Write the structure tokens for this entry.
Amino acid sequence: MDGLCVEGCERCPALVESRSRIVNGAGPEDADLLFVGEGPGANEDEQGEPFVGRSGSVLDSALRDVGLDRSDVRITNCVRCRPPENRDPSTEELSNCRGYLEAEIDRVDPELVVTLGKVPSEHLLDRSVAVTKEAGDLQDARIGGVSRRVLVCVHPAATLYDRSQEETFETTIARAAEVAGVGDAEGGSGQSRLGDY
Ligand code: URA
């Protein structure tokens, strides 16, 4: 474990049984923006990369809208192995994988951590979270003993079964880019810089 890549972990018997592979985080080691999802689904388990299925397309598209490519950001999950039948990871599984997530956040040291959905939001904020109500709210959380800025976001999959979540999702991604100062928001002021030249 170099802070980013977990190999051969066998801490969670049910997940060792259900996974095809461990899905580590993807993206630059010095990204300003780090997204945390719940855990790999079938596509991620097959391809070995987080958010490569339909949820991933929703995320990619919202990133593109604010001038970002997925290769500009770091994307990871609370647990790195696919839970059986896509069930939520258990408290024990979340806790078994916590050290890996903390080490990754520590290593990347992003400007902003964005939690995608209820499981990562509650896991990192350590309280119950009404995600749709709190989406776009900037909070501080201690993660691995370090104070981090965290932005709660609805899970991209929520937009697929509830169209009304689309705007919330896109607005939150735009806010994330602004807070982290990346993509179209790079430079911070949001004003034209043509006058600089
Ligand atoms: N949903 C998640 O929470 N994580 C993934 O990697 C894919 C879908």
In short: Residues 189-197 have pLDDT under 50 and may be disordered. The pocket of uracil is lined by residues 37-41, 44, 50-51, 55, 77 (CB under 6 Å). The helical segments are 13-18, 42-47, 54-65, 91-108, 118-125, 131-134, 158-161, 165-180. The first strand starts at residue 33 and ends at 37.
